[in-house]
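Hello, quick one for you while I still have it in my head. A protein chain has come my way and I'm curious about its shape. I'm sending you its amino acid sequence along with the C-alpha cells. I'd be grateful if you could look everything over and explain what you see. Here's the protein in full, and shout if anything looks odd to you:
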Amino acid sequence: MRVLFIGGTGTISSAISRKAAARGDELYLLNRGNRSVEVPEGARLVRCDIGDEAAAARALEGMSFDVVCDFIGFVPGQMERDFRLFAGRTRQFMYISSASAYHKPVRDYRVNEGTTLANPYWEYSRNKIACEEYLMRMYRENGFPVTIVRPSHTYGEKSVPVGVHGDNGSFQVLKRMLEGKPVIVPGDGTSLWTITFNEDFADGFLGLMGNPHAIGEAFQITNDESLTWNQIYGIVADCLGVELKAYHVASEFLASVGPYDFTGSLIGDKANTVVFDNRKLKAAVPGFCPMIRAEEGLRRTVAYVMAHEECQREDPAFDAWCDRVIGALERAKEEAAGG
C-alpha cells in the first residue's frame, strides 16, 4: 500500500511506521523533520509543516494514497484542512482520536465504540469529539472514507505510564521512588486502568489500514488487560528494585491545587475505572491479540529509560510540588487529630 502518515514519529505513530515499513508498505511521513532519527529505513520524508496548507498542497501535488493518517490533529480546523487536502486523493483517511472522549463521568465501566462521547472536564477531549463529528459528517455527506481510531493510554519504551506527573514527563516519579520518597497515586489507587504498549497498538492499527470494514467506522485499540493504579506503580517500583511508598491523594484535591491540569487528565480521564471491549476491532482484524502484558511492557520501558540519559528529564518544580502537597496533607491529618 501507498501510505502517508502526518506526523509518524511520536509514541504511537513511530511503532506503526516501523511495522508498516517492515512489511513493505510504500511509506511517506509528512512532518517538519525535527525527529529524523525516528524515520524507519525505507520511509520517504516529505519535509513540510502541515500547518502551512499552501506549502503542504505544493509538497503533495500530484500524489495520491491508499491510506492517509493524521496523528497530530487536535482541533476541527485541522480536519477541515485535511479534507481539503485529501478528498479524492486517498482511499482511506484515518484519524487518531482519543478514548478520553468517552462519557465522563463514567456511566458504565465497560466501554465500547457505542459509548456516548462527552467530556465536560477536558477541552482536549471535547476537541477530539468535534474532530470526529466533522469527519463523520464528511463521510455521510461527501463519501470521505474515514476511519476513527481511539487509543487510550498507549506507551512505548521512552516514557513510563503513571497517573500523576509534571511537565517533563514521568522520570521524576521514578527518581522519587529511587530516592525512597513517597509518590502521589491518584485516589485510593484501586480504580482500574488500561495501558497498551505501542507495538500491540500498531498491530491493531495495521489491520485496519486498507480494510473495507473500517470505512465509516470508529475503533478503539487497547490491551485487554486492566490493572489498578496501585498495581501499575507497584510494578514500576519492582522494576527499579525499590519499595513503593504510595501516597494516595483524591483526584479532586489534586485538580484543585494546580498548577497542573489534573481536572482534565485525572477527573476527565485517568481517575475513572474503564474496561475496554475490543470485540469490534477483533471482528474487523481477526488476528489482533495484544501480546505485551503490563509486567513485560513496564519492564522494557523502565530498563530503557534508566539506560538512556536523554529520557531522564528531571523536574524539580514537580518534585517540590509533590513535597508540598504531601506535607500539607500530613499537617491536615495532625490538625484533625488534635495534634
Observations:
- The longest strand covers residues 26-31.
- The chain has two domains: 2-155+196-221, 171-194+226-273+293-336.
